Amino acid sequence: MDELVSIGVPPPVGGVSRLPRPDWLRIRLSTPEPYHRVRRLMEGLNLNTVCEEARCPNIYECWGEHGTATFMILGDTCTRRCGFCAVHTGRPAPGVDADEPARVAEAATAMGLRHVVVTSVDRDDLPDGGAGHFADTIRAIRDRLPGAAVEVLTPDFRGVEEALDIVLAERPEVFSHNMETIPRLYRQARPGSSYERSLALLSEAAARRDSGSYEGRVKTGLMVGLGETTAELEATIRDIRAAGTEILTIGQYLQPTRDHLPVDRYVHPDEFARLRRFALGLGFRHCESGPLVRSSYHAHEHVARS
After folding, report:
1. Is 190 in contact with 82 (CB distance < 8 Å)?
2. Nearest to 178 by CA among 253, 108, 124
3. Cα–Cα distance between 38 and 287 in angstroms, integer?
4. Beta pairing class for 70-73 and 286-289
5. Which of 67, 68, 88 is nearest to 78 (CA)?
6. For residue 216, what is the DSSP state?
7. Which residue, among 34, 61, 30, has the nearest Cα to 294 in the 3D structure?
8. Confidence check: pLDDT of 2 > 70
9. Residue 220: beta bridge partners?
């Protein structure tokens, strides 16, 4: 039976009142057989998904209605501690799981995916930041699903120059790296990361596209509701477009647990629509903007529409 529920608002901490839950942040919780089929597949192949690890609010729609998922490679332990992210942080097991790319490809084949999205935790313990494992995963998907498009959502690889070349050499249809937020909030939201480094990674990917050495799209995502101003957000969107990025997603930040950064405000759907118009006016090929939008939400449509 379907149930309409509010999402993303943890219990109040220490008696501090929480923000009221807006009506537009409500989803229909439904777990039909396709949802359970995807869950069984992931468990059977010992695969991680960002849908589960990051507590994505769209998991019921993507797994239950569309039979899609976003694979998270390189384990389930991130070497960074971002203030917004629910993924477990700590010291990962050494090395990588060499069989993981094949299992991702097997799952994508079983699900009949035509657009495969692969992301990862940050692995600052690896010399290449995990770029080689991304490349292995792309190749495995190509071998099993030669007609499928592949989208990779990568970390910043700590600025290692060769890492981007390793990934782009496998010709993913979409290269994505999320900026997440405005420069002023990086210290709280993304400690260990750098606004300039993330922007430079997008710019380098766009430069390879413009030179003809890479034929895919360049994409990024932003969260709102962390305390940014309209002027700061618009300046960041301008920076992203100036870096050559073609596809932009904008979604509401939802506090995953009481230990994470609080929500500063819930952005109204009308403002998301305005931000989309603003981005398209700057020349983005496509902008997905809405309260429940995440970087891989309706990802296959981003390429078709751009």
Report:
1. yes
2. 253
3. 28
4. unpaired
5. 88
6. S
7. 61
8. no
9. 248
